[in-house]
Every structure is written in structure tokens, then in C-alpha cells.
Amino acid sequence: MSMSRNSRGTCVFCGREMSGRGMTQHLKSCPERQKAIAEADQKIKGIRTLYHLRVSDAWSGYYWLHLEMQGDATLDDLDHYLRAIWLECCDHLSAFRIGDVFYFSYPPPGGWGQERDMNVRARRILSPGMEFNYEYDFGTTTELIIKVLDVRKGGPLSSRPLFLMARNSLEPLPCSQCDQPATQLCTSCVDKHGFYLLFCEQHAAEHGRKEAYHFEYMMGIWNSPRTGQCGYEGPAEPPY
Ligand SMILES: [Zn+2]
Ligand SMILES: [Zn+2]
Ligand SMILES: [Zn+2]
Ligand SMILES: [Zn+2]
Asked: Distances in Å between the alpha carbon of 169 and those of 6, 11, 16, 18, 41?
């Protein structure tokens, strides 16, 4: 899939649409977000630490999320969230790499140096300005970059460990055979730029018939950096 485009996305607080770079700036000053925070701060008993994370895919940067993570939430909570919204296909191993330490989703495989599990709270390890990596599946790997943009003290915006503040929108790409929006790609065929061939419903069916066995290589297009990888078939929706 061609991902040389810049993606836009929507702020959940005010509904405004803008570029990824604009969103990072916007969330600092969005009046509706400030209002939501002021309300959350009034409700809370005792102060919480809350982290503003920007998560993006390492390969294209086209896909991004702005999340607020509670300080008491764990890397395990973040792993579950990322799997639900973007990644889960066959329950692969995943890991965060923070400095020299690997935090694994399953019992550490051994041979990676400092290995831990994901049962560690955000407030123990995160600080503003930090950047770290996450990998899902050590075969067909999807790599993410997570940046801690900010931290605040006050009331959480939800009772859940993570709150989605903004994400990129998937702008439809055209079918390789016509002007209809593509909904599927063939992981066995590439265009002259080396990207998977894209098809609308009708041409996907035609391509699957014409090219022997290519039905088996057709996959859905999702608002996820795992599109076209392993057995990924969405739904690319947040878990809550
Ligand atoms: Zn806004
Ligand atoms: Zn898989
Ligand atoms: Zn078509
Ligand atoms: Zn094909």
C-alpha cells in the first residue's frame, strides 16, 4: 500500500480535523479538551498522574494515535489496547523496548538481555520526552514508536486505563483497475512502486478468479499499520 501521504485525523473533544503534526499542537490547547480536563479534575478525589502518549507506526508514520494513559495503568494495559485497535491477528508475542530493557507479553523468550514482563505501571517508567519502541510479532513484525508528549496531574478522562484523544483517519485509495475506493489488497501482487495491488469489491472478485489461487492472498484494508500483514483482518476498533 502506498503510504507516502500525510494522514489527517480528528480530535475527539472538539471534532476538528487536521494533520498529524497539527494534532500534536492542537491537543495542548484545544478548549474542549481543557473543559473536559477541568470537569475531570473536579470529580476526582486524590491526584492521579496521566500521560499523553503519541503512538505511530515506525514504517510510514501514516497511522497514529493520541492516548491518555493513567499512571497506575500497566504496559500490559497498553499492549491490550494496541492489539485491539491495531494489531491482533494470531496472538503473537509482543514487547516494549525501553532503554536496554525488553518488556514481553509472554514469558520472556531468553537471549534478549534484560527481560521483564509487562506488569509494570506507567508511573514507574514513563516521563515526558521519552521515546520507546513496541513490536508485535517477531516474524512479520509491526513496529510502533511511542512518545511521551506530556504529563499532567489531576482527574482521568475515563475510568479505563487508556483514553483515545485522537487518531488518524484512513483516506480511501483508488482501486488499481477503476476509480472506486479500494477495500482489499492482494498480498501476492505488487505495483511498480512495490506496493500491494489494491482492488474494489468487484475487481477483487475478478482478480481472485483470474489469477489462480489469489483469493487466498486477498486481505481487507483497515485503519491499521498491520493491514496486509500475516492474517490481519481488523476490525481496527478501540476496545473501549
Ligand atoms: Zn480539539
Ligand atoms: Zn498473525
Ligand atoms: Zn475496481
Ligand atoms: Zn494477486
From this structure: 11, 11, 12, 10, 30
Weakest-pLDDT range from 85-89, 129-133, 205-209: 205-209
Local structure of 76: helix, strand or coil: helix
pLDDT at 101 over 90: yes
Residue 44 CA to ligand 2 center (angstroms) comes to 41
Ligand nearest to C-alpha 188: 4
Q: Which band of pLDDT confidence, cut at 50, 70 and 90, is reported for residue 3?
A: low
Helix axes 31-43, 20-29, angle to 10 degrees: 50
- Cα gap 239→222, rounded to integer Å: 16
CATH class for the domain made up of 8-168: alpha beta
Give the number of the ligand closest to the Cα of residue 217: 4
- Distance (Å) from CA 19 to ligand 2 centroid: 31
Give the number of the ligand closest to the Cα of residue 202.
Answer: 3
Q: Ligand 2 centroid vs 12 CA: distance in angstroms?
A: 30
What residues does each domain of the chain span? 8-168, 172-225
- Ligand 3 mean position, distance from CA 169 (Å): 22
From the CA of 9, how far away is ligand 1's center (Å)? Answer: 11
Average pLDDT, the chain: 94
Which ligand minimizes its atom distance to the CA of 37?
1
Query: CB of 118 within 8 A of CB of 75?
Result: yes
Span from the CA of 16 to the centroid of ligand 1 (angstroms): 6
Examine the pLDDT at 1 and tell me if it is beyond 60. no
Res. 2: pLDDT tops 80: no
